[in-house]
Amino acid sequence: MFLNSLPTQLAEWFAAKRWSPRRHQLEMLEAARRGEHALLVAPTGAGKTLAGFMASLAELIEQPADGLHTLYVSPLKALAVDVQRNLLTPIAEMGLDIRVETRTGDTPSDRKARQRVRPPQMLLTTPESLSLLLSYPDSFTMFASLKTIVVDEVHAFATGKRGDLLALSMARLQRIAPNLRRVALSATVADPDGYRAWLAPDGDIDAVTLVQGEKGADPHISILIPEDRIPWAGHSGRYAAAQVMAEIETHKTTIVFCNTRSLAELIFQDLWAVNELKLPIGIHHGSLSVDARRKVEQAMADSRLRALVATASLDLGVDWGDVDCVIQMGAPKGASRLVQRVGRANHRLDEPSEAILVPGNRFEYLEARAALDAVTAGELDNDVFRTGALDVLAQHIMACACAAPFEEAGLLDEIRSALPYSALTDERFGQVLSYIQSGGYALKAYDRFKRLTRDPDGTWRVSHPRFVTQHRLNAGIIVEATMLNVRFRNGRTVGKVEESFAATLSPKDTFFFAGLVLEVEKIEVEDLIVRATSKPARIPTYGGARMPISTHLADRVRAFLASPQEWPRFPDDVREWLEMQARRSALPGPDQLLIETFPREGRHYMVVYSFEGWNAHQSLGMLVTRRMETLGIKPLGFVASDYAIATYSLEPVSDPRALFSPDILEHEFVDWVQQSSLLKRAFREVAVIGGLVERQHPGKRKTGKQVSFSTDLIYDVLRRYEPDHLLLRAAWEDARAKMTDVGRLANLLDRANDTMLHVSLDRVSPLAVPVLVLIGRERVAQGTVDDLLLIEAEALVAEAMSTD
Questions:
Q1: Boundaries of each Helicase C-terminal domain copy (predicted)?
Q2: Any residues with CB less than 8 A from the CB of 734 and at least 6 apart, and which?
Q3: Potential cystine with 46: which of 42, 214, 381, 705 (Cβ 3.0-4.6 Å)?
Q4: What per-residue confidence (pLDDT) applies to 72?
Q5: Are 473 and 487 in contact (CB under 8 A)?
Q6: pLDDT of 594-653, one tens digit each?
Q7: Average pLDDT over all residues of the chain
Q8: SS3 call for 701
Q9: 406-432 pLDDT, tens digit each
Q10: pLDDT band at residue 27, thresholds of 50, 70 and 90?
Q11: 508 torsion bin: left (phi>0), alpha (psi -120 to 50), beta (else)
Q12: Taking 50 as the threshold, does the pLDDT of residue 787 lie above it?
């Protein structure tokens, strides 16, 4: 099939390897021959990268040319480096005169300058670096010869702000090179049509050919059942360290995935403590220094590690062939994420990947079982495509202006050809331009916000060259929390911790980081000076929204609760837990909202089993306790998990309906968000992305404190004098969508009163134990947590499971 379309050198290379091109690789080549855009959906190990580059290799073999031919865009710097390595090998083996280079934030400045003058035929980059390239006047000549853009792991950014930036950049590239062909690759896409529309110019879905890869061997996924019993609470799986170590001992190379950086540090220490064979183990997460990550990645590539503890920093396709097992600590939170992580084990399509899930508690066992069933059924989590963000649009417009003056109508047409901005109105576009021109009504007296000028002929240009420098120094979509460098006295940096965690430390305090135990020597403005020690230590904490359970998995867990016929599949202790819940209280149906109320030790508890994820539950907990206060119920606090919320108060909740009406979003929600730090935090991000506040000046970088101080001042001015400012609106949208998960919250409140099942009990129920233990966790002081929580949990369990 299509084999005769392969150039001789490519066909001979396949033959020398004793390989045959896969069907989807040839279909991608044929789509390119027809000049069509294409989306390839194929499992890990199916040769997606080669499929994406096949047409480019064929064209450059048949018609050798200088100049930039193919642009490859990756969500991760590490992925770009990895693909370069995998692409250089076949190019060298075929003896092709094709230059392949990477361009990321880590690329030396002299190479970046040379790449703009004499670009390679293939350039591997990230959305942020591409946007910066487009801000130079020579971008029009650099990209004039561009034939193909390949977007790898498209699911990783299409639905977020990085995807907005990339969509706008592709619109600009299409204007520079009208015959540009767009290609996207992914292993985990539930809605191919949504991604075809996102990829296509003008959202024309029919312009993008969908190529489906062959289905690979079904993965072998198992759930680790502990030697004792599945815990009632916790979400780390730390109890299974010895069993996890035993799995590492019996495999070539294992990646141990954790959902947070803090947990990764903990699990690394736990595994090292039981590593009796002293096997080489590494750790990898986004807060480690670039050097530390590169060393670990190289050690993995050289097969010098037996295990690597990692976070989402390795979710995406770094190809290490010797990895033959993936272990997920705690629940995976989504079927798509699980598929992505399982794909890191064994990059061979015809051999099954092996994965082990380690649930942290009984609810997480149900979630792990739900994820396993979803993967078996081939069901993935749906992605939600959203309207493009205005702060990203402002940054892109500034990049365009840095490259050349522009006319308003022409740029608007170009921007509307990107799907996220296809519905952008003339009025809103004018507001964004006005914001960049003056900063807005409340800030127009300050020259430093006047970045654009409109000439009498209607052309827009950058007001002063300093704004061009300012843009290039500060452009980017990823806004990290305020961080301090962790470094030794000799200057070696090992990574970063958040300023909020560093503020809790004093000299001689100790903490785990990068697999080491570090003691604080002193704290400077931007640096935490440390030395290695062997003293007992604590774990750094990181802020930000937690990864919530997906709606798809939550629905499957609900279905388990309402289906006793499924329970024989579960371990005895999980089955007994559910059976006792059915006997003592009730189990909610798939569409029911179960609410239990009961007294305990002089307090009154309400537990809401809503299954809408941690972020939505945190928001709802705040709102419900506010309303409880108004109604005189005297709340003392609340705790939340992915599955439930528990409030505790001095007075009982006799009728929960009054607490769960949809108007809570119109009253308490708006007041709470505006008065909390959520909106201010969201404003800091949009102000940086939108170019209102600089992170860096030439030769000097602002500290996180300085950035926060600047944004807080501007925030207060705008709230007072221009409350409908463009960036305040953008911050409000971010706070609603990202930090509070308002969509799931609204869905819950809309159905609450119609589906509520209120059960009044005389004591705690079995289903309530996992969330009530969290109250104990919040009350217990550091250092005594484990012992006291164990006593608390045992007392709760005895009470809940008693048949009296």
A1: 240-383
A2: 389, 682, 685, 686
A3: 42
A4: 93
A5: no
A6: 999 999 988 999 999 999 888 888 888 888 888 898 899 998 888 888 899 999 999 999
A7: 84
A8: strand
A9: 999 999 999 999 999 999 999 999 999
A10: very high
A11: left
A12: no
Per-residue exposure over 234-265, b if at least 16 CB sit within 10 Å of its own CB, e if not: bbbbbbbbebbbebbeebebbbbbbbbbbbbb
For the beta sheet containing 603-609, the strands, ordered from the edge strand earlier in sequence to the opposite edge, are 635-640, 645-649, 603-609, 593-600, 756-760
Give CA angle at 389 (383, 394), nearest 5°. Answer: 150
Neighbours of 778 (CB within 10 A): 9
- Contact 581/766 with Cβ under 8 angstroms? yes
Report DSSP letters for 254-300, one per residue: EEEE-SSHHHHHHHHHHHHHT-TT---EEEE-TTB-HHHHHHHHHHH
* Local structure of residue 548 (DSSP, 8 states): P
Q: How far apart are CA 490 and CA 256, in angstroms?
A: 32
Residues 6 or more apart whose Cβ sits within 8 Å of residue 293: 78, 284, 313
Q: For residues 591 and 754, give the distance between their C-alpha atoms in angstroms, rounded to a whole number.
A: 10
Rounded CA separation 497/541 (Å): 8
Residue range 584-593: mean pLDDT, rounded: 91
**Tally of CB atoms within 10 A around 601:** 7
Instruction: Look up tokens 């739900």; give the residue.
Output: 370
* CB 756 within 8 Å of CB 595: yes
Whether pLDDT at 692 is above 90? no
Tokens of 626: 């506010």
CA atoms within 13 A on the CB side of 495: 21
Structure tokens at 60: 């450059």
Please tell me the distance from the alpha carbon of residue 383 to that of residue 8, in angstroms, as a whole number.
41
Span 39-61, mean pLDDT?
87
Q: Rounded to an integer, what is the distance from CA 515 to the centroid of its chain?
A: 23
Structure tokens at 665: 């979003």
Helices and strands of the chain, counted as H and E runs: 29, 28
Quick check: 163 and 75 in contact, CB under 8 A? no
CA distance linking residue 131 with residue 472, whole number of Å: 9
CB 37 within 8 A of CB 180: no
What is the DSSP-derived secondary structure letter of residue 759?
E
Report the C-alpha gap between 340 and 154 in whole angstroms. Answer: 13
pLDDT tens by residue, 60-80: 999 998 999 999 998 875 555
105 has pLDDT over 50:
yes
**CB 264 within 8 Å of CB 310:** yes
Tokens encoding 11: 């066909």
Helix axes 668-675, 614-630, angle to 10 degrees: 110
* Cβ count near 673 (within 10 Å): 22
pLDDT value of position 89 = 85
Residue 549 tokens read as 């359970």
Q: Is 43 helix (H, G, I), strand (E, B) or coil?
A: coil
